[in-house]
């Protein structure tokens, strides 16, 4: 999970959680603005909307994981 959400594991303090939340929010905002600037129609519009929803899901998941990591609710897997 650390490879997919690297920003969520930067630190366990309040400042790190706020910083990662802002970065994930900025990622989604930039993607939404760029994709919203163009008029997508038909099949391309559906594909673009799915991509935008996946970026939203990634951003929201990253924020949740950052909070769970800061609260030490994620367990480390021992190999």
Beta-strand content bin: under 5%
| Tally of individual helices | 2
Structural class: mainly alpha
SSE ordering: HH
Estimated helix fraction: 55-70%
N→C terminal distance: 15 Å
Shape: elongated
Q: Which value, in Å, is the CA radius of gyration?
A: 15 Å
DSSP, total strands: 0
Characterize the biggest β-sheet. none
**On the 0-100 scale, what is the average pLDDT?**
89
The residue ranges in which pLDDT falls below 50 over 5 or more consecutive positions are none
What is the compact description of this entry?
The protein is mainly alpha-helical. It has helices at 14-36, 42-70.
Explain the overall architecture:
This protein has 79 residues and is mostly helical. It contains two helices and no strands. It has helices spanning 14-36, 42-70. It is elongated. The model has no long low-confidence stretch (mean pLDDT 89).
List keywords for this structure.
mainly alpha; 66% helix
Give the helices and strands, then pairings.
Elements: H1 14-36, H2 42-70
Helix pairs in contact: 1-2
